[in-house]
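Quick illustration for those who missed Monday's session on complexes.
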Amino acid sequence: MELDLRPLNIPGIDAEKRPIVIAGPCSAETEEQIMNTARELAANGIKIMRAGIWKPRTKPGGFEGVGEEGLRWLKQAKDEYGLLTATEVATAAHVNAALEHNVDVLWVGARTSANPFAMQELADALKGVDIPVLVKNPVNPDLELWIGALQRINNAGVKRIAAIHRGFSSYEKRIYRNPPMWHIPIELRRRIPALPIFGDPSHTGGSRELIAPLCQQAMDLGFDGLIIESHCNPDNAWSDAKQQITPDVLDFILDKLTIRNSAVTTESLEALRKQIDDIDNQLLELLAKRMRVCREIGTYKKEHNLTVVQTARYSEILQKRGAQASLCGMSDSFIRDVFEHIHEESVAQQIEILNK
Ligand code: PEP
Ligand code: MN
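Prediction with phosphoenolpyruvate bound:
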C-alpha cells in the first residue's frame, strides 16, 4: 500500500537542501542545560532542536525524563532563539502535552514503533492534527512492521511523515550500538520513494567517533536528513553520554560532509547503466545454461546411482574459482560465496531430478 504523503514542509527549512538537521540533547535535564544547548545550536545555524522529555529506559530506575516541565523549557528555547522543537511521543497523553506546548515536530521511538497497539493509540491521538511525524525503525529488523507503523500514522490523516533509521538491536554489540543493516532503509526507499528518511547516527553508532562516518554514509545513500544528539556538556549528560557531542563538534562534522547529488542527471550514467543491464542479462543466460548442464549431470548420476554432492569436485570448484577471481581483481571470498550459492541451487535441481 502506498502512503498518502505531502512534503514535510517544516517552516523555514529548505527541503531541497540536504541534510535537514535536527539536533539537541538525548534528554531535557534542566532549564539551564536546554537554554545553553539551544543558544549554542542556534549560533551554529541549527534550526530544529530535539530533546527527549519522556525517556523509555531498558530498566526501571534510570533517568526517565523530566516530563511536562521540560516542554516549558523547550518553548522558552523556541521563543528566545527562534528554534523549532522536536520531541518523542509514546502515548496519547504525550501527544496532547506536546501539542499544548507548541512542539513543532514529533518523533516516535524505536520501542514504540515495534508495538502496533502503541502506534494505534498515537495515530488516534493524532487524528485531525497536521504536524510532521517522524517514525523511527522498530528495534527489531522488520521492514513490514516499520511500514505498518508509518501507515497507522498516515491512516489517521497525517501526511507530513518521515522515517528515522536508528539501526537495529542485536545481541552481540561489536562496532555499533544498533547495527545499521543498510539494506532495510534502502528497501524502504525503494518501496516508498517519496518518504523522506533521516539518519540517526547517535543511536546507530552509540559513540562519538562513529557520528561523522555514519552521517556521511547516510548522505551517500541519499537520506534527506539527520537527527543528532548534541549537548552543551556531553560528558555529564544524564542519558546516552557516550554518544553526545557539543554543538561545536556537531558544526565541524556537518561542515565536513560531502553532499553528492542524488538525482541522476548525466547521460553517460544512463549509458553505463545500459551496459550493466546487458551484462546482467548475459550473466542470467550463462547461469541458466550452467543449470541445464547440471541437470544433465543429475540425470547421469541417477542412472549410475551416484550421490548428488561429490565433495572433492565441489572443493576443487571453490578453490579454482577463488584463485581465478584474485587474478580478475575480485576478492577470493566474494567469488567463493557466489559459487557456494550457485552450487546450492545446482544441488537443489539435481535432487529434484533424482527424486523424480
Ligand atoms: C532517542 O532518540 O533518544 C531514543 C530514545 O531513541 P531510540 O528510540 O532510537 O532508541
Ligand atoms: Mn538517546
